[in-house]
């Protein structure tokens, strides 16, 4: 709790653009070092100091003690289009409550966070080929099979200890990576088409695995005017992971196809691999299996919606994830939280919980 309170004091100080000297003076400390020790969790906050903090910042004491908040404790990287800052901050707070709930309830029900945090040995100096090779190796070493997109979320959760959450975010948000001191999280907009959803998942995985050497921007445009090197590396990693060369070998040669047959095969193979036709097209160009001239000859219209006249209604995966719902069920079963409180955090009516548990094959903690 000492670390949590300190982190939240630091977060509020930075939001208000106060220096440590300024805030230390408001607390009545003799020096800045006392506040610094509080912010890093090296010094406990006395009761009167906590009360003083509520007065200085104009927040309730719950802000500093509520375990179902992430204020100042996590770093997000959002993949979005045209979302204004206030709306994104509001959604980040809601998403943070989901993550904080998992963290708190997992701890209360005896689940330990991963002991070791995996990382890729890539840096900004790595080449795009290096990133692609890492994606290929990931697919092979974690045995993702002939359709890597199908198993990726489960592998991230089971093998790497990453919390993957399928969510219904505000409009414009595709996904996010979030790093806490003890937990990695990926949020994915479950309502997007499968191909984009899977690409976002692999893209955010790259950020999680390279966070220390290449911390991502807080906000990333999906289609920026100029893509940063880190984002290009992430795209190459994601593309190779979802479409490894060994998997693409199954579909034969591409170079000799006429434009019409090439478009048909791109759409058919993309459907089979659960990716978009455009992503497959650029993967083949990057691998040298299609020339730039062949790619330029393809009409974008022929690849739109993987060749369909209209995008089909996305078949959304169940809300959140099985590990998340299992923790919620265990916490309710053990009385670690109330149905009313968890319903508020998840943004669900209590009447929807039976369906939520059933969608993940999780036994409801009691009759709903």
Characterization of the model:
The chain has 368 residues and is α/β, with parallel strands linked by helices. The chain has 18 helices and five strands. The protein is globular, with a radius of gyration of 23 Å. 38% of the residues are buried. The model has no long low-confidence stretch (mean pLDDT 92).
What is the structure about, briefly put?
The protein has 368 residues and is α/β, with parallel strands linked by helices. The chain is built from 18 helices and five strands. The chain starts with a helix and ends in a 9-residue tail after the last helix.
State the share of residues found in helices, binned by percent: 40-55%
**Largest beta-sheet characterization:** 5 strands, mixed
- Main structural class: alpha/beta
Q: What's the overall average pLDDT, rounded?
A: 92
How far do the termini sit from each other? 34 Å
Q: Report the uncertain regions.
A: none
Bin the strand percentage. Answer: 5-15%
Strand order of the largest sheet: 2-4-3-1-5
Order of helices and strands: HHHHHEHHHEEEHEHHHHHHHHH
């Amino acid at each position: 709790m000492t670390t949590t309170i300190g982190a939240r004091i630091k977060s509020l100080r930075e939001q208000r653009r106060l220096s440590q000297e300024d805030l230390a003076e408001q607390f009545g400390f003799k020096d800045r070092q006392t506040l610094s020790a509080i912010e890093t969790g090296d010094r406990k906050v006395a009761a009167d100091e906590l009360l003083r903090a509520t007065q200085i910042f104009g927040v309730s004491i719950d802000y500093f003690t509520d375990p179902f908040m992430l204020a100042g404790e996590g770093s997000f990287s959002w993949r979005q289009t045209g979302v204004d800052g206030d709306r994104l901050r509001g959604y980040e707070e809601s998403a943070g409550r989901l993550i904080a709930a998992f963290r708190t309830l997992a701890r209360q029900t005896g689940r330990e966070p991963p002991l070791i945090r995996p990382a890729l040995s890539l840096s900004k100096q790595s080449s795009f080929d290096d990133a692609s090779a890492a994606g290929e190796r990931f697919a092979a070493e974690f045995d993702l099979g002939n359709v890597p997109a199908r198993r990726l979320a489960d592998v991230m959760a089971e093998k790497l200890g990453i919390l993957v959450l399928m969510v219904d975010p505000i409009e414009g948000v595709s996904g996010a990576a979030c790093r806490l001191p003890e937990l990695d999280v990926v949020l994915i907009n479950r309502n997007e088409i499968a191909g984009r959803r899977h690409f976002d998942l692999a893209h955010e995985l790259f950020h999680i695995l390279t966070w220390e050497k290449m911390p991502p921007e807080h906000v990333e445009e999906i289609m920026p005017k100029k893509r940063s090197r880190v984002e290009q590396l992430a795209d190459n990693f994601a593309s190779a992971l979802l479409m490894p060369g060994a998997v693409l070998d199954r579909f034969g040669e591409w170079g000799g196809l006429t434009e019409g047959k090439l478009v048909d095969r791109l759409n058919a193979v993309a459907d089979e691999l659960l990716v978009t036709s455009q992503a497959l097209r650029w993967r083949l160009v990057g691998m040298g299996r299609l020339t730039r001239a062949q790619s330029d000859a393809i009409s974008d219209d022929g690849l739109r919606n993987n060749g369909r006249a209209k995008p089909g209604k996305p078949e959304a995966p169940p809300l959140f994830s099985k590990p998340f719902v299992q923790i919620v069920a265990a916490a309710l079963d053990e009385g670690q939280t109330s149905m009313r409180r968890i319903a508020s955090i998840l943004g669900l009516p209590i009447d929807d919980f039976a369906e939520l548990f059933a969608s993940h094959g999780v036994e409801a903690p009691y009759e709903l």
